[in-house]
Structure formats: C-alpha cells, structure tokens
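in:
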C-alpha cells in the first residue's frame, strides 16, 4: 500500500507540467482562436473558438515553468507541448464528430491531453506500464474533480 501511494505521488509529480499546461488555458486563454476561424475540408471548424493562441502559449509557458522548477526542463517542455497538442487533437476529433466546443465526449475529454503528453515525451523518456496505468487513473480522477471546482468557481461554463 505504501509503495502504491509513493508511486502515485511520484507519477503525479512527474506529470505536473502536463496538468498545468492543460489547466492554464482555461484561466489565461481567450483572444484569437488557434485555427484562425478556419474550417477543415468537411466545412467544420478545425478546432473551435475555445482553442486560442494565448491559451496555447500560456499553457506551454506554465507547464514548462513547472518542469524548470522540477529541474526537468526537457521533460517539462515535452509534457506541456504534448498535452496541448493532445488537447487540440481531441478538439479536432470532436469537431469531425459534429460536436460543438464544450460538448462532452467522455474518455476523450479526460485523456486526450495526457495521451499527447505521453506520446510526445516518450520519444525521449521511457515509462513503464505501471506508470502509464497510474497516470491514466490519476488523470481520470483529477480531471473530473478539477473541472467541477472550476465550474463552481465560474472559471468554466460547464462542469466537464
């Protein structure tokens, strides 16, 4: 039990840059959308109005700063960039499915950013199966909890 708790704390600490990168755009986003209001070949927006240039830059800056504070600059940058790209990929998939920005798509909404962080950072860092299982579990729990808090604090318009 003690080892599992230690592992959970270690995994949480390791992936903090991705969590910060994912959460920061909610607070510091806004402004011009990253897709410049353009549509994809299917006639739908590429990402939607909730994915902004300012949010992307803020997420990358905050996440990378956390990595610097952890003395893991490269990992922090890669986890942050991967989280943001993963979130964009999730938005792209949702637009292709005809879902509007902010509409829920369970599992994708919770894991797109952490999948992006894992995929990008794993080009340079190795994660064992237990770490991947822990980060997915922690992310599912944290994502629901933090989104509810952001909703009640009126930072987010919807609790998901």
């Amino acid at each position: 039990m003690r080892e599992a708790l230690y592992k959970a704390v270690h995994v949480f600490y390791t992936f903090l840059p991705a969590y910060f990168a994912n959460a920061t755009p909610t607070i510091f986003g806004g402004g011009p959308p990253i897709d410049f209001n353009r549509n994809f070949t299917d006639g739908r927006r590429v990402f939607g109005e909730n994915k902004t240039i300012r949010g992307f830059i803020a997420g990358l800056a905050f996440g990378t700063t956390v990595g610097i504070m952890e003395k893991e600059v490269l990992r922090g940058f890669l986890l942050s960039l991967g989280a943001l790209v993963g979130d964009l990929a999730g938005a792209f998939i949702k637009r292709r499915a005809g879902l509007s920005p902010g509409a829920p798509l369970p599992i994708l909404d919770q894991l797109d950013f952490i999948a992006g962080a894992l995929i990008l950072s794993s080009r340079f860092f190795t994660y064992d199966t237990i770490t991947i299982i822990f980060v997915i579990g922690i992310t599912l729990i944290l994502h629901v909890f933090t989104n509810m808090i952001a909703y009640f604090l009126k930072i987010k318009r919807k609790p998901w």
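note: The radius of gyration is 16 Å.
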